[in-house]
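User:
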Amino acid sequence: MELTLRDGRWVAAGAAVTPRPRRVRLLEWLLPWAARLRGGYFRYGVERPVCRAIHGAAARGTLYRFAPPPPLTLVRRGRGRWRADEYRFRSPFVSHIAPRNQAYLRHYRSGPRARGIVILNHGSGCFAAFLEGEFIARLLTAGLDVALLAAPGFYRRRHRHDLRRQWAATVGAALSAMVQLVHDDVAVEAWARGLGYRVVAVSGIGIGGTVAAVAASTSARFDACVPMLAGAHPGRLWLPPRILARAVHRRALARAGVRRGRTLARLFDPVAPARFARPQGRRPCTVVGLRADTLVLAADVADLAAHWRVVPVWLPRCHVELPACTGDLAAIVARTVLRAA
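Assistant: Predicted structure:
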């Protein structure tokens, strides 16, 4: 039986989707236009050499052979309650975009008796920054420490083309960014074990959730995994009827020879959780979706849950209502991690 979290209570999930208010539907309709104003997804084309190299490594089974973790260097010590220590390290997976190879990590501490640590991969959408602060505060209140990785294309890990178009200037840039984050997650897990954490979980929202799912599927090092708003195949994000299909720079892709949505989707096969075996062992895994989401459809989340053979958890919300879901999402993550503890 599928479950929905309503006002802090678990109830049986109904098949019907609650109609959204008109202003909410309007905001969702405007999301792809906001992305197009920033240049759209894949404005600079495909970068076929990068995609070819990543697909070749995936075919040989070498793409997720994780190197020994690099040393982490303390850059800045946090002050006050719930202030983060900042670290930097060389990413084990070297991207073709040099500025992205220097990774940055923020380490938030809940106290001396933390029950575990959550490696968090934030999403790439316009709500990522709004969710980050409140979401982390809720996890700290629950007694969990947080390690927040700066995603390639954000913060100081930006190429000059990333300043407006962020992580997805090309298909190759987006694909390598996701692969790089998976390797970074594994490196941070080894660092966290060295600090004495017995329970290390990985989580994320949207693209970050996909990264968490791939990390859990390709490595047995994590004790729990909570992908949120992540489907079985990230390439579907830009296919109709998902609203981000309208934000794709189709002319740039056509100039690079990609004229069909299915071809674009196949380029993301190396980072598709459905292409890997489900996480092995008895590690707690929770797949979370939004019933009324038009970016990551409920069907996509259900496909991931079916592939992992877990019961998905639903929130009766849509994408623009994510800021109102912060408490529920943090409660789900904390509940899963504490099961592992």
